[in-house]
Amino acid sequence: MRMPIPIKPKVACSNMQINLITGISGSGKSVALRAFEDAGYDCVDNLPVPLLENLISTLEKEKCDRVAVAIDARRGESIADLPLILEQLRRSHEIRIVFLNADTNTLVQRFSETRRRHPLSGTSEQSGAATLIEAIDKERSLLEPLRAQAHSIDTSNLPAHALRSWIQDLLKDKPLGLTVVFESFGFKKGVPSDADLVFDVRCLPNPHYDKALRPLTGNDAPVQAFLEKIPEVQSMEVDIIHFVEKWLPHYIADGRSYLTVAIGCTGGQHRSVYLVGQLNKYFSVQKNLATSQINFLTRHRELDSIPAVAL
User: Fold this and answer.
1) Residue range 18-71, pLDDT digits in tens
2) Binding-site residue set
3) Which part of the chain is the RapZ C-terminal domain (predicted)?
4) Binding site for GTP: which residues?
5) Which positions make up the binding site for ATP?
6) Would you say 253 and 244 are in contact if contact means Cβ atoms under 8 Å apart?
């Protein structure tokens, strides 16, 4: 009698790093995916949601340990199944969601410049053909459940080279715990949409009015020496530190993966840059905040945006 061939049980490759890149069309997902590819990740673009589990199963068999998958809302309502699929995958793997966003005016300008059609431009329930703004609004609605649990990056004023750099910094963080991003910005270009906490430091003396300091930034020693001598600057720094220090444990307890603390001055060149550096310096050396669970990153939106290169 012929004995049946034994079937070996499937052995899952645990702790695969799965990076899901999603967000609003035109916000730079292709740029982000290329940054993952350059970092050595296996990358898949425009994957239909129903195929995600099959893809991960195949990569498990191939003993892949790092993958980046770009998924958008072009297939409409199927995106609603993604949170449940990700919840199931989290039982065996590390999941990170990177959500790219931009304001509507910027997106309209980008689509106009590239002359591309929005993936949802033909999905209006009323007329069968949606305007660009209607398509963007629908996409925001479909992707909102993902944005709420993701690391969000606002690319409205961000050139491609800066986005690549930010992704590279993100890939250096610890696989578990909370990632805190200290980001400087200029109010004249708007508040970053990815900011969780915003501190306005425009009330502080401005080095811009010193001709010798005007072309420099908050990363330069002369500007730092100027600001360090001002009591109000030191008081603002201490107050922000105390606020963040007090509430960080609560964000950790809430299960947050990412927290963006945005510091804004008028142009995003001197005061906010200086304070971001001071905050990062302080928190990076603290040992009383369970810092083994926290990774600290810095961003300078306006400085990182020079020179400007289109996404």
Assistant:
1) 999 999 999 999 999 999 998 889 999 989 998 999 999 999 888 888 999 999
2) 23-30, 72-75
3) 179-303
4) 72-75
5) 23-30
6) no
